[in-house]
Write a structure and sequence with these properties.
Blueprint (H helix, E strand, L loop, with lengths): L8 H5 L9 E5 L5 H9 L3 E8 L11 E7 L3 E6 L7 H8 L4 E4 L2 H9 L9 E3 H4 L10 H8 L20 H22 L14 H22 L5 H11 L1 H11 L3 H15 L1
Parallel strand pairs: 1-4, 2-5, 5-6
Antiparallel strand pairs: 2-3, 3-4
């Protein structure tokens, strides 16, 4: 099957919406994590996405609020604003034998790295491989429209993902975003690519960002430890350009002991 390279907004809007028809499980408590990871550890491929409460202030970015991990029949919505990014979840994200499919994976990983550092393995970004099938679009909405013939609704993208309770619309939106990544990937693999797809791990950008930040911090710390020009060094440098100042300092600091004693007693008598 040959996929079209691009699709217009009008053509996309005319398509039926994609909906996840499996089980949606909202994870808000620490005691739920063990069962979640037990199920995910048995999978060979899962869909991956994150959601963050939008900020409408310039320069302000909120922490990631939701991690979506989906199988073909079940999607877990892990509310990171209510529970921690547990070690057992990090093992899933670090397992190269469990393929995690997403779109703009580096951006999602960067958000998770802001919570905890981990070594991500086994990630594939649809944005990186779609071009092998001649697809030029990068948004998940349009890739779904081209490959599946269904559009992904983005109506809930700017909703409050830190709300006390996720609405049914939010849950469906979040689950569909993760699940549709699996569906797109599997449909692509059923077709002959035009070029050799780069089915490789996408550790790159998120890891590079963290390494750059660490390097910057290390260099800044090192710079702080480097000795600055001392007061004595600054004075010596100044005296090189001003001999009169040097002579004044010499005469002021190297008075004869008798002269210094006389000055001291004269000061004491003045106080009396």
């Amino acid at each position: 099957m040959v996929f079209q390279a691009t699709i217009s907004n009008e053509q996309t809007a005319a398509l039926d919406s994609a909906h996840f028809d499996g089980e949606i499980i909202v994870v808000e408590r620490d005691e739920q994590i063990q069962d979640v990871c037990r199920d995910l550890s048995a999978q060979k491929i899962i869909g991956f996405d994150t959601e963050t409460r939008p900020s409408f202030k310039a320069g302000v970015t909120n922490k990631v609020a939701l991690l979506q991990l989906s199988t073909r029949k079940r999607c877990y919505l892990i509310r990171l604003c209510r529970t921690r990014l547990h070690n057992s979840l990090l093992k899933i994200l670090s397992n190269p034998n469990i393929i995690k499919i997403g779109a703009d994976v580096a951006g999602d990983l960067r958000s998770l790295h802001a919570l905890r550092h981990f070594h991500e393995r086994g990630f594939i970004d649809l944005q990186h491989i779609a071009s092998a099938w001649g697809i030029e679009e990068k948004s998940l909405r349009k890739m779904s429209a081209i490959v599946l013939g269904q559009r992904v609704s983005k109506a809930q993208r700017l909703s409050n993902w830190e709300a006390s309770t996720l609405t049914p619309q939010q849950q469906m939106y979040a689950a569909t975003d993760a699940w549709v990544c699996i569906s797109i990937y599997e449909h692509l693999l059923k077709s002959e690519p035009l070029t050799e797809p780069k089915i490789e791990e996408v550790i790159s950008e998120a890891g590079a960002v963290k390494r750059d930040a660490t390097t910057h911090k290390r260099e800044t710390t090192k710079a702080k430890r480097e000795p600055h020009t001392t007061r004595v060094q600054a004075t010596a440098k100044s005296e090189e350009h001003n001999p009169k100042r040097a002579e004044y300092r010499r005469r002021r600091h190297y008075r004869k002991p008798k002269e210094r004693t006389f000055r001291f007693f004269r000061f004491v008598l003045f106080l009396l």
